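Hi F.,

I've been meaning to write this up properly since the lab meeting, where we talked about keeping a consistent format for the predictions we share between groups. The idea is simple: the sequence comes first, exactly as it goes in, then the structure tokens exactly as they come out, then a line or two of notes. No screenshots and no reformatting. I'm using this chain as the first example so we have something concrete to point to.
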Amino acid sequence: MHSSGYLWGLDDSGCPRRLNASSDPQGDDYLDWINEAIFDGDHRPIRIQKIVATREHVMALDKHGYCYLYVCTSHTAIRFIVSTFENQRWYPGIGWSARTLPTDRSSFSDESGFLTQPRESFKLPSDGWKWEQPWMIDLNEQLYDKEGWQYSFNFEVNAHFRNAPTMTSFVRRRRWLRSRRYTALCRWIQVNVACSSQLFVDMCAGGFDVDADSSSELYSLFALSRDGDLYWRKGIRKNSPEGTEWQLIEPIPDDSGGITLSFVFVCCLIESAEKAES
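Output, unedited:
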């Protein structure tokens, strides 16, 4: 398996090893396989049964069904900004209050207002991340006033918000931001699972030739569970290397209600627009 100038493999004991595959090797040690063992909490080596390398990441699967991520060194810092909106309503004789109406969005929500998300609900996805700063108010003067507020008549889905209040401004909102940075370069991080059904026996990756930017998937990672269910790792991006969650793929229908898969095989036929034109 190849990743960022390295070849990856497993030795007989299930230990991942990395070989410098640079076209311009320096020194005599570039042919040495480097031990990249994964250890548990007691510092005992974990036996890996499969390893999948992409251009920038390496995924490993142990015998118990857990996945691990290795992100290669990058010249660009990996950052992710989370945000939530603080919402308030104006009441005669009281003024602005975080106590909104039952039909309004909650006092903290996403931009649409459908999802309640107080600031304390945001957690680091793994120990590979560190918060870079406390929560800060977005003070973009083109969108918000000096305190970060936007004003509107109500909280309807298509409500128009402006950066200054008017006589008909009865609701307001402001955006809170917090940045986290990925700090686990060149070391293994266990990918979190939501339940025991997300323990796997096989995995594969593809789609590396698709042109990707910061807002699109870098590649597709699939995993096969012990129950024969196929999962896709959602949200693998440059600023989110481990993705966001495992998403179950609907089973292939047959007369009995579904086909159980015994292996995973992904054939990627998508090419970039540039390659298609050539």
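Notes:
Residues 271 and 277 are 10 Å apart (CA to CA).
The two ends are 27 Å apart (CA to CA).

If this format works for you, I'll send the rest the same way.

G.
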